[in-house]
Specification:
Blueprint lengths: L3 H11 L4 H5 L3 H9 L5 H15 L2 H8 L11 H16 L5 H13 L2
Helix pairs in contact: 1-4, 6-7
């Protein structure tokens, strides 16, 4: 699994040579960067790619370079509904506070 931080560092320090392209599995582009590094064009392109990588979210990065978002598995609506019901029972019985209830409820709804 490719790490976004490693890609950012490679792009910043060795972007003109295409190291980040090799790391991200884009071998063809990496070879092009190596062939034309003496023109400084790959360094200029890598400068913009650095900012693209910095401002890309983890989910977008995983989708593009790791074959999908592997951070949060999809939860079915039925599972979320039963989890919300259980959460409401915990809140009604006083086991969790209102703040905890709202936080967990929003998290469950986000995963739908």
């Amino acid at each position: 699994m490719k790490n976004r931080t490693v890609a950012i560092l490679l792009c910043f320090f060795l972007g003109g040579l295409g190291a980040h392209k090799f790391y991200l599995g884009q071998i063809g582009l990496g070879v092009l960067y190596l062939l034309f590094f003496w023109t400084f064009i790959p360094a200029i392109v890598a400068f913009f790619e650095f900012f693209m990588l910095v401002f890309t979210s983890d989910d977008d990065f995983n989708r593009r370079f790791n074959g999908g978002s592997q951070l949060q598995p999809m939860v079915s609506a039925k599972d979320s509904t039963s989890a919300l019901s259980d959460l409401k029972q915990l809140y009604d019985s006083g086991v969790i506070t209102a703040e905890e209830y709202e936080e967990k409820r929003k998290k469950l709804l986000r995963n739908l």
